[in-house]
Amino acid sequence: MKDMLLSAWRYRYFILSSIQTEFRARFIRSRLGGLWMIIHPLAQAAIFALVLAEMMAARLPGLANNKFAYAIYLMSGMLAWSLFSEVINRCLTLFIDNGNLLKKIVFPRISLPLIVTGSALFNNLLLFMAIIVVFGLLGHAPGVQIAWVPLLMLVTLALALGIGLVLGVLNVFIRDVGQVVPVVLQLGFWFTPIVYAPNIVPEAFRPMLHMNPMTTIVQSYQNAMLFNTTPDFVGLGWLFPAILILLGGAFIMFRRASAEMVDVL
């Protein structure tokens, strides 16, 4: 793993320039350009808010009198989920989409997932800034605890990269993985308290809800952005070592499978 990280550092300018090129190429003929990356998740949050605001706003503790509380709650959770799902979805087909590149050009293969994560992080930072502006328009001034959000982004990124790398490698050898993962992600979205508050879930099922690692992360985002309280450091303290183990295992799996992936592709 040390060799992979050193090779990625030597190719850091290649990785950074690839992120920049990807961003430009994606929107080169689009009039709104990078705004589409912000519009899509905000539009999704707006649709949920229009449909569910009346029913769900009263369930948010301490915010029942704020008519925009549910919209703010939604956007806080969507910020975390958009980063998580983008990294996994892009890693899922990363090696298949770049099969010709892997065969013809010599470069550190770890550069590909790093380019994806860098691009996704940049997109998420733009969304974060847009959400802060929307919060201001809705009359919600985030407190000092919002400073924890960049750290939470890195935790989310590490979890998504670990899962995405494993799934991306498996998808090269077992193409059914690419068909199953979008369904599982959709289930995961509804199994995470983004659209609903955890207190509406029957008490008997709440422990199951917390088996989902994104529950702790999303609630930490909501604490920092909506309730101006510290993230769930107890939950994150248990989660962080597991993420490190997952990420380390994913890198080892990727390194050992790299040569075979090129042959299969």
What composes the largest sheet? none
> Uncertain regions: pLDDT < 50 for 5+ in a row?
none
Quantity of strands, as a count: 0
Q: Report Rg.
A: 19 Å
Topology as a string of helices (H) and strands (E): HHHHHHHHHHHH
Residues in β-strands, percent: under 5%
State the secondary-structure class: mainly alpha
Share of helix among residues?
over 70%
Terminal Cα span: 23 Å
Give the integer mean of the pLDDT values.
84
- Helices, by number, come to 12
Shape: globular
How many structural domains can be distinguished in the coordinates?
Answer: 1
Topology of this protein?
Layout: H1 2-10, H2 12-26, H3 35-56, H4 69-92, H5 94-97, H6 99-104, H7 111-137, H8 149-173, H9 176-190, H10 206-209, H11 213-227, H12 233-264
Helix pairs in contact: 2-7, 3-4, 3-7, 4-7, 4-8, 4-9, 4-11, 7-8, 8-9, 8-11, 8-12, 11-12
Short description:
By secondary structure, the chain is mostly helical. Helix content is 75%, strand content 0%.
Structural account:
The protein has one domain. The longest helix has 32 residues, at 233-264. The protein has helices at residues 2-10, 12-26, 35-56, 69-92, 94-97, 99-104, 111-137, 149-173, 176-190, 206-209, 213-227, 233-264. The chain is globular. Helix 3 (35-56) crosses helix 4, helix 4 (69-92) runs antiparallel to helix 11 (213-227) and helix 8 (149-173) packs antiparallel against helix 9. By secondary structure, the chain is an all-alpha fold. 75% of the residues lie in helices and 0% in strands.
